[in-house]
Specification:
single chain; seven-stranded mixed β-sheet; mainly beta; 11 strands; globular; four-stranded antiparallel β-sheet; 123 residues
């Protein structure tokens, strides 16, 4: 049974930092590309960042220079370090896994999803 469990969300002031984690089980984590997506109220789920099995990374323009995605294959965990957050970053953040060695931004192609963790940024 595949499980992706996000943690680390919460309430943070604008300009602050937060680190999200996503622990995976039931998959051969090291061969999966991992992605972070977010969904704000009334909006579609959008791509935030992704990392390949070999460590290649990509980000949506709105978070470049502020967010950093990383992975620890020994712990089957992917992280999203969020710095200099602003109220527009408020959303439920989801991690997702896809069995591929390339970057994938398209949410519809991911194989597995977590249930999400809420991030709220106060102004």
């Amino acid at each position: 049974q595949v499980q992706l469990v996000e943690s680390g969300g919460g309430l943070v002031q604008a300009g602050g930092s937060l680190r999200l984690s996503c622990a995976a089980s039931g998959i051969s984590f090291s061969i999966y590309a991992m992605g972070w997506f977010r969904q704000a109220p009334g909006k579609e789920r959008e791509f935030v960042a992704a990392i390949t099995s070999s460590g290649g990374m990509t980000y949506v323009d709105s978070v470049k220079g502020r967010f950093a995605i990383s992975r620890d294959n020994a712990k089957n965990t992917v992280y999203l370090q969020m710095n200099r957050v602003n109220p527009e970053d408020t959303a439920v953040y989801y991690c997702a896994a896809k069995k591929t060695n390339i970057i994938v931004r398209n949410k519809s192609t991911y194989d597995y999803w977590g249930r999400g963790t809420q991030v709220t940024v106060s102004s």
